[in-house]
Amino acid sequence: MTLRQLYTYIAMGIGVIVLAIIGITSWYTVDESEQAVILTFGKAEENITEPGLHFKMPWPIQEQETLSKETYSFTFNKDEEKSKNQVQMITGDENIVLANLVVQWKITDPAKYLYGAEDPELVLSNATSSSIRQVIGASTIDEALTSGKAEIENEVRELLVSLIDDYQVGISVIDVKLQEVDLPNEKVREAFTKVQDARETKNTKIKEAEKYKNENYEEALGEKDAIISRAEGAKVSRIQEAKGAVAQFNALYKEYKNSPNVTEDRLVMETLEQVLPQANVYIMNDDGNTMKYLPIGVNTSQQTPQPSQKDETEGQSDKQADKEDENKGGKKNE
What we know:
Elements: H1 3-25, E1 27-30, E2 34-40, E3 43-48, E4 52-55, E5 62-68, E6 72-76, E7 87-90, E8 96-107, H2 110-115, H3 120-137, H4 141-145, H5 149-167, E9 171-182, H6 186-258, H7 260-275, E10 281-284, E11 290-294, H8 309-333
Antiparallel strand pairs: 1-4, 2-3, 2-5, 6-8, 7-8, 8-9, 10-11
Helix pairs in contact: 3-5, 6-7
């Protein structure tokens, strides 16, 4: 074999190798769960997300990097023995808590993920730690351990998404789950449990007191309204009684002006009836003889004696004298 023939065989072999390289590296496939980025002389130029067969310039002009589309989970664990990613932080009321935090994320920009940062997952870890510490630091221990977990999750998610967007590492945060928030040791847990029990007892007593207050308050309002209503009724009744008494007095005064002696005798007799309701009242002359018998307050079991003929004659004389006195009194008043 001559030297020329040797060179010819070598050139043919090199050509076959080059053709094989071109044939092998000029195409690639992307699965449905994958995405790719095309590198031209090491520079990322195009993201490929459509599954199927794709063509490119042969190596070493172009090459592709294939990445997964799946959702990843990044976990922060409160147990120091199980994970090095321990999240220990101070709350807004200066208490130490430990947290279990899971971040779900996926690669959305392969070029930025490959070349935007040296370690995108470390960037995500630091951003997550910063977010959870900032939110827990603005919350109380009661909110972190009990009713405020959902709100803390939402605030951490919003803050973490904002940070990752600013860092531009090709990652998108899908969800943040605050699985558990706990106290650092057993003694602290026992003390906090006692505080919680005391707070629950306090709240129960307050609710019972409020219930008792509301019940008695309504009852007191009803009693107040009833007292006011009775007072108003008594007020109206007394006003009417007073008006009646005034009218009666005015009528009596009018009669008194017309007949003073008769009215005066009448008032005396009515007063005696009220003061001595069971007494037998006799009206006597100045000489001590019975002038007239009035059955005022007489018991029904007693018989009313009939006046004698002399008494009747004296009574008629006295009546005539009374009439004359009344006429004289009326003339004097005029």
